[in-house]
Amino acid sequence: SDAARQRPEHPALLFKGDASEILLAVVRALFGTFCVASALQGHIAGLGDIRARGGAEWPIRVALLVGGLAIAVPGSTLLPWSGTTADIVGAALVVPVMVYTALLGRRTIAA
Length: 111
What we know:
Layout: H1 2-6, H2 19-41, E1 43-44, E2 48-49, H3 57-72, H4 83-110
Antiparallel strand pairs: 1-2
Helix pairs in contact: 2-3, 3-4
C-alpha cells in the first residue's frame, strides 16, 4: 500500500509516456498555473486587470482559481472530478472569465 501511495498520479508530468501525452500534460499544468496565478494576482496577462471589476472581482477570482486547479491538477486529486470532467469544468469556469475580461478591457480602451 505504501508503494501505491508513492506512485505518481500522472506519469506524463514526469516525462513518462507518449510525446503527445507529455505535451498535453505540460500545457494543462502551465495553463492551469497561469489561471491560478491570475486569480491570486488580480490581473490576467494580456487581457487586463480584474481588480477594477467592482462586485464581479471576487467571483472572477474564484472562477479562475477553481478552474485553474481543475485544469492543472492531474486527475483532479484536489477536486471531486475525474480528469475529463475536471477539464470541462475548468474550461467552463475559465473561458467565460477570460472573454469577459477581454471584452471589458477593449471597452475601457475605446472609451
